[in-house]
Amino acid sequence: MKIFNTLTKAKEDFVPLKEGEVSMYVCGPTVYNFFHIGNARTFISFDTIRRYFEYRGYKVNFVQNFTDIDDKMIKKANDDGITVKELGDKFIEEYYKDADALGLKRATINPRATELIDEIIDFIKSLEEKGFAYNVDGDVYFNTVRFNEYGKLSHQTLDDLEAGARVDVDERKKDPMDFALWKKKKPGEPSWDSPWGQGRPGWHIECSTMASKLLGDTIDIHAGGSDLIFPHHENEIAQSEAKTGKPFARYWMHGAFLNINNQKMSKSLNNFFTARDILNEYEPEVIRLFMLSGHYRTPLNFSMDLLEQSKAGLERFYNSINNLEYILETVVDRDLNSDDSELLKRIDAYKERFIEVMDDDFNTADGISVIYDLVRDVNTNIKPQSPKILIKKALDMIRELGKPLALLQKTTQGELDLEIEKLIEDRQKARKEKNWALSDKIRDDLKAKGIILEDTPQGVKWKRI
Question: What global pTM score does this model have?
């Protein structure tokens, strides 16, 4: 298995620290509002990567944090007239609603920054003792000049880096690139006691502390959106490696941006969508199929037209599943002939192709193409007269390859309740009696109940909508 490592700008063979296990830290949301579809793409990408590791037999210790104290949260809480904790509690609950709807597996643990204040303070004290941090009237900064490898993740030298939008400008700092580890209390802000006085942690120190506390000084994978490469992840590396003298993460993974109608998503352009906005319009699997249709490191364009294409593609997949499920229930079994045996081998070959492309830096776009090819082959070559073992193999393989993508696991068959069974029987009777008006009415009544009927030479097929 190969992973593109942002740190080395190259694909590398994945070799975990502990055989058969993966330690993975993914930067989570700042919980002051609903998360947007750009966040959703990142979450879906790394959820899928986690699922694929598990599909390949790894045990994954997956940590995703909640940033529940920062400037945006303080402002929003003050605007809403509630505490920062109340704001965090509210939007953590809302996060779970949307994340669960999108099929995101719950993390092994979702730590909150405010739950580890003592550990954060100890982390900063250690940096101060080693000469990597300094106190200026209650504000504590990391001394970037002392860390010789600063800039190695963003592949820039310290001289090349300038204070940007996400770097605090403060003339009291020894260097413009020094960043806050601890922030002195200001009026209207929550605060905690510390050796430097009342205050709160800086953004970057939170993730370093949570990752090391829960996964160890060195972890396998640290991941997030590409906007976090600098300064957030760069600063995490500096403070973590300055403290421990060990590599912080062996593989750094970053997902690309999501554009809206070929434009950068922006509130000023009024093209900003939350995940909940889209979940109100489309099924979660449609959204996942769309998000995974591009490689996680490739920018993806979002539009309703493209979502409609994903919706149609998902329907093709499920039509095939529905057909196979129906045939499986009605098939009269027989032995395999030579054509059947050849198709059986091809089905296994699709799995090999799927693993090959997914092992190459989790190429979900090509993985989905393999499933499309499998479905096309199955649709063309499996008939109602096909042997049961072949039909079941095809159905199981479509579901197996969909599982690490969190797709194609629903069944379109099931036990109909007595009322619907009676309606289908009545329609069949009406058709035999050539009572087309009654037959059409029953069909429409069933559709209103979410049941679609399809008349085939093998009998009536149905599926839920």
Answer: 0.89
Sign of CA dihedral 369, 373, 378, 380: positive
Q: pLDDT band for 171, please (50, 70, 90 cuts).
A: confident
| Residue 158 vs residues 117, 144, 208, 342, 343: alpha-carbon distances, Å | 30, 8, 21, 60, 59
Q: Are 34 and 98 within 8 A, CB to CB?
A: yes
Cβ pair 103, 284 in contact under 8 A: yes
Q: Contact at 8 Å (CB) between 29 and 87?
A: no
- Residue 167 banded pLDDT, cuts 50, 70, 90: low
Beta bridge partners of 99: none
- Cα separation, 203 vs 215, whole angstroms: 19
**pLDDT tens, position by position, 356-396:** 999 999 999 999 999 999 999 999 999 989 999 999 999 99
* pLDDT tens readout for residues 288-344: 999 999 999 999 999 999 999 999 999 999 999 999 998 988 888 889 999 999 999
- Interatomic CA distance for residues 206 and 65, integer angstroms: 9
- Token readout for 208 is 């370093």
Rounded to whole angstroms, the Cα distance separating 380 from 400 reads: 20
